[in-house]
Amino acid sequence: MSSTTAPFLPTNGIRKAVIVGGNRIPFARTGGAYAHSSNQDMLTAALDGLVARFGLQDQEIGEVAAGAVLKHSRDFNLTREAVLGSALSATTPAYDLQQACATGMEAVIGLSNKIKLGQIDSAIAGGVDSASDAPIAVSEGLRAILLDLNRAKTVPDKLKILSRIRPKDLSPDAPNTGEPRTGLSMGEHQALTTAQWKISREAQDQLALASHKNLAAAYDRHFFDDLITPFRGLSRDSNLRADSTLEKLASLKPVFGRNLGNAATMTAGNSTPLTDGASTVLLASEEWAQANELPMLANVVDGEAAAVDFVHGKDGLLMAPAFAVPRMLARNGLTLADIDFFEIHEAFAGTVLSTLAAWEDEEFGKTRLGLDGAFGSIDRAKLNVNGSSLAAGHPFAATGGRLVATLAKMLHERGHVDGRPARGLISVCAAGGQGVVALLEAR
Amino acid sequence: MDHVLTEMPSLSKLYLNAAATSAKQRLARTTPTVALPTKAVEVRGVTADLAKVTQFAHLMGKPARDVLPSGYIHALAFPVAMSVMVDEDFPLPLLGMIHLRNQVEHFSMILFTDVLTIRSWARELTGHRRGTQVQLVVEVRSDDGTRLLWRGVSTYLAKGIYLPGLDKPAPAQAPGERAPFNPPAPTAQWQLGVDTGRAYAAVSGDFNPIHLSVLSAKALGLRRSIAHGMYAAARVVGDIGSPKPEGFSWDISFDSPVFLPATVSLHIADTLADDDGVWLGSEFTAWNARSAKPYFHGSVTAGTAATK
């Protein structure tokens, strides 16, 4: 089935990149079902499921790209190692990439562009993260001593270096979610943005409740049957609370922004928990999909990245998608009203609602987006209709693959709207004040 | 006549000298002089210690570059300013002096390979409602002394020292009537551990006992050790950065000591040109995250007084 001849390239130089399908393992709350699973275990499991679903055993795929946000230095070739451990042909090249929580999105966009340019015919984009099996480093002091020790040549030199070790050097250095340049955690940053856009506690809890209800309903109608492969005894996302209620959510105490006084609205219920999991998406040219008799769910139409200057306090840490989406839609001659499904990653309920509030704000539209007025509002019935990260959880690099595969399937099911293919928008915010968004179209 | 030193003075010896001078003055009960020494101290042929530059930048959480960070230049030049202050003609005791303000201008980038001439002198001995204040000027020039690269002015307060003949200005506001500080929303938060002072001392060479440990700070009359003012200044200036490293200035005023450990909330806001949105500068304010007591405030500005 695989082809070693040069890919077909139309005369205009650009061809279509299609989403064939996806596979992920259920996402698990940290310390749960995957407490002892490594990034490589989970990425390999997600890849194995994808291979099985689409009959890719022994196939040479054009390229596989995936990444992890929390990555051990020994996993320098995480994706290639996962490919070697999978049923794919050992001649499938692979590379790691990382763009914080937008890693999976960037993998999809980058590989789609290679397909569009005719450099490859097929690709697998993915992402994985484990907050349970996170790498722990030795302290900076001990690290410097051990590296010096490694360079020392004589025994007296080595003893002299070893004598530099102090008790405090022995405490380990665990990764944290603090922004290196501000020292504020992502939740504290979002709490400031949530307060700035005056997002109420009730609105956040309602969004969280909708996420759980929508995700539970999607499982109930077997929507995820061909998107998920069980792993380690888990067949549903372990964070899902189908029986959650507004009362239960309202009873939770704020965990972020507590120094904001009465304005503290962000709880464990309307913020995503630390999660473990992995996801993959199979991308192809139309020719490759047809030759291999594989489905074509949606086209990857466009992608856009943005970043904001949160260090100087100009915008909230997670507000970059508020800039990326208007730019990408304008380039495609579209407005929010032309989109049939919105997948806005729920890092926090406040992130989604702050983004929507910014788009509805006339001042923001005029001064920050350079428009004549507000960018626009969206029909909430089109937002995260099969649930999102608040319910499913958010293993950082794995979220992009989850969103792309889910939306592609929804678009394919919808088919056409008003005589044109249904359109879907994905928006993912990321650490470092970044955001990556993408536009998909049904087939 | 200026006092030209052949090599950089040792800070630890200067601190010992300062302690000895202060003891001598107490024993002799000499009447302090009211005039500043007229001579400057100059050291030629100064170069940066690359290992220290790297450690300094990393302590600030910044990439270590070949260009010297502003705070490191202050640390490099600090022994020269100290030499001025330990001179027996200097009218104020060095130990226990409080850091009130720093104003720095960068006229050019300084590389770690540059050979520098550093010169320092005291000026502006004036009364303060809580004692006597003085300014220490430091100029960093090119090797041949012709090109001015960096100038820093540090203002210090000798608390409780009132020199005869110096007018004590009337306080603008009576103590306790200061306008209440309403903290803005923070844009950053620093968790400073008890070892913050020791860590900065190790990279800057400033082993003033008030920064090192609770015990050494108590020996000098403080309830706990405090963070170096220059640590805060170097970190916030590094965080803000400047799109024009070859020409910018900054100014920081210290409102209250940062007793360690501390959680410091920080607010940074940009000033942009009305017409083209070009960055003109950033203002910053820092306060105690729990008590909302102000710690320090100031600004980083594009260009220098000479270019503005």
What features would you describe in this structure?
The complex is a heterodimer of chains A (443) and B (308). Chain A is an alpha+beta fold. Among the domains of chain A are: 31 residues; 179 residues, Thiolase/Chalcone synthase (Peroxisomal Thiolase, Chain A, domain 1), CATH 3.40.47.10. In chain A, the strands form three sheets. In chain A, strands 1, 2, 3, 4, 5, 8, 9, 10, 13 and 14 form a ten-stranded mixed sheet that branches. A two-stranded antiparallel sheet of chain A has the order 6-7. In chain A, a hairpin with a 2-residue loop joins strand 11 and strand 12. Chain A is globular. The relative contact order of chain A is 0.20. The model of chain A has no long low-confidence stretch (mean pLDDT 93). By secondary structure, chain B is α+β, with helices and mostly antiparallel strands. Chain B has a single domain, classed as Roll (Thiol Ester Dehydrase, Chain A), CATH 3.10.129.10. Helix content of chain B is 23%, strand content 31%. Chain B has six helices and eleven strands. Chain B has an eleven-stranded mixed sheet, with helices on one face. In chain B, helix 1 packs parallel to helix 3 and helix 2 packs antiparallel against helix 4. The longest helix of chain B has 18 residues. Chain B is globular. The two termini of chain B are 33 Å apart. The model of chain B has no long low-confidence stretch (mean pLDDT 87).
For the biggest sheet of chain A, the summary is: 10 strands, mixed
Unreliable segments of 5+ consecutive residues of chain A: none
Shape of chain B: globular
Order of helices and strands of chain A: EEHEHEHEHHHHHEEEHEHEHHHHEEEE
Look at the structure and name the CATH superfamily of the domain at 186-222 and 301-442 in chain A.
Thiolase/Chalcone synthase
Number of beta-strand segments of chain B: 11
The total of helices of chain A stands at 14
Order of helices and strands of chain B: EHEHHEEEEEHHHEEEE
Q: Taking Cα atoms only, what radius of gyration of chain A do you get, to the nearest Å? A: 23 Å
Report the CATH C-level class of the domain at 186-222 and 301-442 in chain A.
Answer: Alpha Beta
